Amino acid sequence: MILREILEVLKATEVHVSDTTILDKDFTHVSVADLMSDALAMVCSAGDKTFLLTGLVNAQSIRTAEVLDINTIIYVRDKTPQDVDLIIGKDMNMNLFTTRLSMYEACGLLYESGLQTATK
Amino acid sequence: MMEYSYVINKDDYANAGKVSTQIKKILKELGVPPEVLRRMAIACYEAEINMIIHSYGGIIKLSISDQISFVFKDKGPGIPDINMAMQPGYSTADDRARELGFGAGMGLANIKKVSDEFDIESSVEGTTLNLRFNIL
User: Fold this and answer.
1) What is the 3-state secondary structure (H, E, C) of B60-109?
2) Which among A49, A51, A43 has a CA at the least distance from the CA of A94?
3) Would you call A3 helix, strand, or coil by DSSP?
4) A34–B113: do the CB atoms touch at under 8 Å?
5) In this predicted model, what pLDDT tens digit does every residue of B13-57 receive, in sequence order?
6) Does the model's ipTM exceed the 0.90 cut?
7) Distance, in angstroms, between A5 CA and closest chain B CA?
8) Where are the alpha helices (DSSP H) in chain A?
9) Chain A residues within 8 A (CB-CB) of chain B?
């Protein structure tokens, strides 16, 4: 499923996009976690087709994604990073979005859309 | 052999993960295969975060030859029960660390899972974690 469609499903809006071609990139997996060691435990082979869905909006969500070779993060509950963290995201060429949906609602919609868990 | 050394400070949450990002960049430029690179970045990041949250500070040493070795050596206070600390979900992280997304209790278990060789020793004087990754 391409990111543009995922964003539509989640009614997500752009916070920062480093690479506009990302919108047409295909994603197959989603890593869902608020604690970053949980995200780091989810090492799936389709790293470049995985995005991070999280309620953690500080710099660690961005650094964790970078460690996992993930360049797209969607934040739930309308959260957006503070300016100081946004600078880190820009430096790391991250693509950041936010949805008003709760984690529960977002996960339900993504599951229904055929996205798979990044748990190995 | 190439060697690098980095100082990690206690409670330096603002810079948590910065050293691991730098190390990942160095190893990527050296052409380390992506699958190994990712495992090393995960282990290094977890160990760096552990040092910031739980120790009085310490150093990370990276050695690159036909294999890649990391030494994470801190100044204490040590891990009272390493077996417990290795259990997924067991955490002694405080509220401040949890607010920042740490303290899932997966750190050491994650590190062991992704490393080719894992060795840990701990006393009140400090903890030393040795990790090795095969790149050939």
Assistant:
1) EEEEECCEEEEEEEECCCCCCCHHHHCCCCCCCCCHHHHHCCCCCCCHHH
2) A51
3) helix
4) no
5) 989 999 999 999 999 999 999 999 999 999 999 999 999 999 999
6) no
7) 28
8) 3-10, 36-41, 59-67, 83-91, 103-112
9) 33-38, 40-41, 43, 47, 56, 58-61, 63-64, 66-69, 92
CATH class of B2-134: alpha beta
**CB within 8 Å of A105: residues ≥ 6 apart:** none
Residues of A with CB below 8 A from B14's CB? Answer: 59
What lies within 8 Å, CB to CB, of A62 at 6+ separation is A73, A81, A85, A88, A89, A92, A94, A96
Is residue A97 within 8 Å of residue A12, measured between CB atoms? yes
What does the mean pLDDT of chain A come to? Answer: 93
Q: What pLDDT was estimated at residue B23?
A: 97
> CA-CA distances (angstroms) from residue A46 to A1, A29, A68, A112, B18?
14, 7, 11, 20, 25
The closest CB to that of B24, out of A40, A47, A67, belongs to A67
Instruction: Please answer yes or no on whether A41 and B21 come within 8 Å at the CB atom.
Output: no
pLDDT tens figures, A33-58: 999 988 988 766 677 899 999 999 99
Please give the backbone phi and psi of residue A73, each rounded to the nearest 5 degrees, phi first. -125, 135
Q: Which two tokens stand for residue B73?
A: 């050596």
pTM of the model: 0.92
